[in-house]
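Residues pack. One example:


***
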Amino acid sequence: MDALFAALGTFAALASFSLALALHLWRLRRNEIAHIYRRLERVEERLEGIEHDLADVRERIARLEESVSN
């Protein structure tokens, strides 16, 4: 009977450890995904800034071309 309780206790300890490890890995994965989304948002903001700057440069070039052709 003691061997049975020891085996059940060992099984319970291993199951508890496995569950704790799985939950920890799940949290890490979720945090990594959130971090990747934050980085992606920053990259998108930078691209929008570059697009805006490029539009300004195009406008300046158009004005310069107009003034040169006149």
Remarks:
- Residues 2-69 form the longest helix (68 residues).
- The chain has a mean pLDDT of 92.
- Residues 58 and 64 are 10 Å apart (CA to CA).
- The two ends are 103 Å apart (CA to CA).
